[in-house]
Design a protein that fits this description.
0% strand, globular
Length: 337
């Protein structure tokens, strides 16, 4: 008897792509919330720590409430002892910590759309490389023409969206943090997927991500506060504390879908959702650099890149070749070496 993943692989892949795009909208939402929180507090470090800590509380409560989550957390030390997991595979949360720190520090300056596209280059390049090498034990995904074209279009989207403002209203140095965050997010997706596979629990993998990220931000924020002091007061608007909830949701989605679509396509789908969400946020409730027609063009280029990269052209060509070989006279049905 075959399961749904065998009977309808394309439907599952399409569902994973759709869910990941929704997760990307959640990333853009978190950019907006944490960007304003950092501005209100006038302290990006504290804003990032608050966001991650709230997310940590939510994911720990969820993991402990679910039998699969509790079992998955118990598997973490077991898998470390057996070597199924290496210690560095648990560090995916560092990428998320850098992303959230960047939100608190510069998203309010750059605007949601520009901050988003600044992470695209790092995400796409890292996704392409990690898929090609089979990072952290993941199956290798070949660097096909479709994937290269799709990634190239998203890089072009970065240039289109950022170039008109670069060096003017957008400081060059302010782009470095989201660029580094993009590299980290690409690695985070692969590592979290590896932890999920080893523990057989998305809740456990998400919890590990948040424990590591919160710990790193706690150390960085403690040093920062020793130097500059505590913020005057915390904001009263409850909406500014939703960043952690949004982060928990989109990290959980990524943990599940990365095994189905790979790191590169995951990154491309996230970028598409981020840019769509960022465009809406910057038009309806703007922050930082105003949105222009260049941003809309960048969204279109990115969506085109996702659509091209998602096409299973290589798989279809291989299937047609196999059928042709098996149907040819004298064929043994065995693929040539």
């Amino acid at each position: 008897m075959t399961d749904g993943s065998t009977r309808h692989p394309h439907l599952l892949t399409a569902g994973a792509i759709g869910a990941t795009i929704v997760a990307g909208v959640g990333v853009a939402s978190q950019h907006r919330v944490n960007g304003e929180l950092g501005q209100v507090l006038d302290d990006g470090f504290t804003a990032a720590l608050l966001s991650f800590t709230i997310g940590l509380v939510l994911v720990v409560a969820t993991a402990l409430a679910l039998p699969s989550g509790r079992l998955g957390l118990r598997r973490v030390p077991q898998q470390l002892r057996t070597g199924e997991l290496r210690w560095w595979m648990l560090l995916g949360g560092l990428g998320g910590a850098v992303l959230v720190l960047g939100q608190g520090l510069v998203a309010g300056i750059l605007g949601v759309a520009v901050y988003t596209v600044a992470t695209v280059t790092g995400q796409t390049i890292m996704g392409l490389v990690l898929d090609a090498i089979g990072f952290a034990g993941a199956p290798r995904k070949p660097v096909t023409i479709a994937r290269v074209v799709g990634a190239s279009l998203t890089v072009a989207a970065v240039v289109v969206a950022v170039a008109p403002e670069l060096g003017g209203s957008i400081p060059v140095l302010a782009l470095l943090l989201p660029l580094v965050a993009g590299l980290g997010i690409g690695t985070q997706q692969a590592l979290n997927g590896r932890v999920r596979t080893a523990t057989r629990s998305a809740a456990a993998a998400t919890t590990v991500n948040f424990v590591v990220g919160t710990s790193a931000l706690a150390v960085a924020t403690a040093v920062h506060l020793l130097l500059v002091g505590l913020p005057e007061q915390l904001p009263s608007n409850p909406a500014l504390y939703l960043g952690g909830l949004l982060g928990a949701a989109f990290i959980a989605i990524q943990v599940v879908t990365v095994a189905r679509i790979g790191v590169l396509l995951l990154g491309l789908c996230l970028v598409a959702g981020q840019l769509l969400g960022a465009l809406v946020f910057d038009l309806v409730i703007p922050i930082g650099v105003p949105t222009t027609g260049w941003t809309a063009l960048a969204v279109g280029l990115t969506l085109g890149g996702v659509a091209i990269a998602a096409q299973p052209w290589r798989a279809r060509a291989a299937l047609r070749a196999a059928r042709s070989a098996s149907a040819s006279p004298g064929s043994s049905g065995r693929a040539p070496d």
